[in-house]
Amino acid sequence: MQRSLYVIALLLMFAGTIFVLSAEAPEERTIISDDGRLRLVGQFLQSDEVSIFTVAPLVYQLYPGDKIMTIPATATVNYEGLISDEAAPRLRLSYFDNAFSMWRPVYTTIDPASHTATVEIDRFAKWALIEVSDVARPNFDAEIEALIVAAPEEAVGYQIEVGFSDPPGDLVILSGMGKSGGCDDQYKTGSSTQMTSKGKIFSDHLEYQIVAVWQLADGCPERQSIE
Questions:
Q1: 58, 227, 220, 165: which is closest to 211 by C-alpha?
Q2: 75, 101, 182, 218: least buried by Cβ within 10 Å?
Q3: CA atoms of 52 and 44, how far apart (whole Å)
Q4: Is the torsion defined by CA of 5, 7, 11, 14 positive or negative?
Q5: Which CATH architecture has domain 25-131?
Q6: How confident is the model at residue 131 (pLDDT cuts 50, 70, 90)?
């Protein structure tokens, strides 16, 4: 009798585990923005209340915001009637990086025939389809070094990004110009403070900005000096 009860208990536990796992198993869902232009297809948990709010034309807030996706999803934006065919090759879907207060472009596939931009995304955030122009890429080594030298006393790590705006306004991160250090050369999450340096360079309309996010002492396993 006791053995039978033990077997029944194990079966119930097993069935309960299967139920919980199946209830949280990701399933493919398609989410469409309220303006009908952004289509998001991905594997989402049933508990994920995914929605897309149109902030402005081709600017969207994906909810739940500021959360990494369990599995990357495919986002497709239809820009027909809003962006010219000439500008289309320069389009990049970008998310707003709150740490640096700048847009961070990601690799985007443009289909001129269907007037769509497609990208694989890995986070819920504010996303926008923006035109990223080819701009001058000055050498900012001196300015970056000056920021590092002026690091807060308790800083043990840092990440620096360079952005630009043309005309002045929202800033876009220039890929390949960032720098990080400390924490065994890996930027890590934790307490941080931010210092910024910005200035107009080379013209009266093109503005570059250097943003440093500093990792404080509790952000690394042990205190290290910045070199």
A1: 165
A2: 218
A3: 14
A4: positive
A5: Sandwich (2.60)
A6: very high
